[in-house]
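Protocol step 4 of 6: structure prediction from sequence.
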Amino acid sequence: MKKHLANIFDPKSGNTVMFAFDHGYFMGSTAGLERLDIVIPKLLPYVDCLMGTRGALRTCVPADNRKAIALRVSSGSSMLNEDLSHEVVAVDIEDSIRMNADCMAVQTFIGADGQLSSIDNLSRVINAGFRYSIPTLGVVAVGKDMERTDRFFKLATRIVAEMGVQLVKTYYCDNFEEIVAACPVPIVVAGGKKLPEREALNLAYKSIQGGARGLDMGRNIFQSDHSVEMVQAIRKIVHEGYTDQQAWEFFEDLTH
């Protein structure tokens, strides 16, 4: 399990740049991800970990890939259904092993209608992961009627960590340092909806300064008009201690 975690986190900085392209499991063909076979290879050199579904990983990631794999193992309703909180475990442990997964990602709805089944999904994946020494990534989901407050994220991240995950993916919020301090496992911050590039770099900087061990960005990379340059700027913040201003200047130099 330590070896899998070492694959995810850079040995020098101790942080990770994850590239999330698992949106298709509930959104279908997402803008910017219509051609995964083109998008992924050009970004691959600049990320530490690929977060995707087994279908996308098998068909669109080169077999000689040496990057870490965060395998999406939960699935549920599509965007056509307003309630996304009722998911199932869609990938069994044997296929996670075949996929060489370095962690298994499970969507976890705390405080939503599907909380009980969500925690059951998480527990079953954690238990299977311990049997075969594969870490579990608990992805803190936010329902449409839930507030993104520090109180909620402190509650949700701690519950997920107490269940036994090895790392947590959540959102940045006010008083983020308190969320990190109260969570006994590494936190990776989700990029969320597409932001202007400078705002996305500011989010990345504040997250790392607040104690996050990495960024898991999707739309803020693949929906950028300069996706390759954007992921390189993110790396500067995550691994080299750049400020958001320094990263923005670096990004501008690459794009002009």
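Step 5 (inspection) to follow. The radius of gyration is 17 Å.
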